[in-house]
Amino acid sequence: MKSDDTKKIAHDLGADLCGIASADRFGEAPEGFHPCDVLPSCSLPFRPEQ
Q1: How far apart are CA 29 and CA 44, in angstroms?
Q2: How far apart are CA 36 and CA 42, in angstroms?
Q3: Predicted TM-score of the model (pTM)
Q4: Residues 37, 31: Cα–Cα separation, whole Å
Q5: Which whole-number Å values give the CA distances from 23 to 13, 15, 27, in the listed order?
Q6: Total structural domains in the chain?
Q7: List of residues 6+ apart from 37 with CB closer than 8 A
Q8: pLDDT digits 0-9 by tens, 1-50
């Protein structure tokens, strides 16, 4: 799935914005805040916002 597809789905579900980043960008995140702390197989977390 491409990022544009993910953003379209988020928009269709009511999000005004949707950000996508590589999980590598969270390397120094505090324990419990890294995307892999929630979903170990996560590689591209996204954040829809309304």
Answers
A1: 15
A2: 5
A3: 0.59
A4: 8
A5: 23, 21, 8
A6: 1
A7: 31
A8: 788 999 999 999 999 999 888 888 888 889 888 888 888 888 878 777 77
* Domain span at 12: 3-49
Q: Which amino acid is at 14?
A: G
Find where tokens 């197989």 sit: 41
Query: Given the structure tokens 């789905």, which residue do they identify?
Result: 9
The token pair that represents 32 in the structure block: 């419990």
Q: What are phi and psi of 9, to 5 degrees?
A: -60, -45
**29: DSSP letter:** P
Rounded alpha-carbon distances, angstroms, from residue 41 to 8, 14, 23, 35, 37: 23, 26, 10, 9, 9
